[in-house]
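dumping this here before i forget
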Amino acid sequence: MRVVAAMSGGVDSAVAAARMVDAGHEVVGVHLALSQNAATLRESARGCCTIEDAGDARRVADMIGIPFYVWDMAARFKNDVVDDFVAEYAAGRTPNPCLRCNEKIKFAALLDKALALGFDAVATGHYAQILEGPGGARELHRAVDMAKDQSYVLGVLNADQLARSFFPLGDTAKPQIRQEAAARGFYVAAKPDSHDICFIPDGDTRKWLTDRLGEQPGDIVDADGATVGRHGGAYGFTVGQRRGLRLGQPAAGGEPRYVVEVQPGTNTVVVATGDLLGIDAITGDHSRWCGPPPRGVASVGAQVRAHGEEIPATARADGRQVEVRLQRRIRGVAPGQSVVLYDGTRVVGSATIARATSSRGAASGGAGRNEVRDKAGSSTSPAAG
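structure:
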């Protein structure tokens, strides 16, 4: 097969490209230029897709003897990932840019361009597996190395995209990948992994958002609607957050308080004690299925963070919307995050969380999320429902 190997300049994509060559495919290495000012993004190990990374990828391609190109997708990345990220936070939601990048860039723009140029598939260094299911259908499964498993951020792929994707590292643990890279003589064998959000290299998301959205002072209120602090912009907060609140008044019982709701319409952040954070009912929209969607009410595992715990649940799909009921309550689930559904190790699909509530009322006798909303003032956020 003719395969485009997406080469970020890191150790994982380097070994993935080499393995595709070893498997007998006709491979071309491609580095995606995603930043409109790439030279300024590299700071320690946080950034990626920089000029430095492109050079690392080119050296690996030369070593394994494959053609190498840089494809400029900076404008598409800014529109579909960066601008979307800003808009989501401004609307009071908490997006996952890695899922959006996989959906819009790596397995849409990149794959579409590869197919248009006559290639058959795209290979990446993601830690996940594609296995053959009943009837020969390709299924997305968790990686063998659960500590590095990236199936969560691939839950946006559909069956057609899976049919044209390769993840050569899914059956190997990360330490062995580094050993293999060293044995192949790759300079990137010991290169640190990139972390956090690639376009926020210093990791300060609130400052980055403030630079783009400006200071927007507003109130921090408690569950009764009383003002307990001030903030510089509701967009800088997410459900479940505790750090950085700088509250002037402690809770009556001295308990720590957390963000339980962000109301962009009134520029208000609502805080309460942790007993109001627990949810067990999720409504998701923008559903994406890696194969056939669930029929009726299906037993699944649900995961709401990239390396979070999988919770036993049931799911019912209705068009582009899915209702998920968890067997136990979990904390800190924010609108805008993604819920990814599993059947064993197989990824069923994903959806963007529109609402997260408790079906049984609040734990420990606290007020429920709806009661908090009534006391603190109704929100105009689409996520508040």
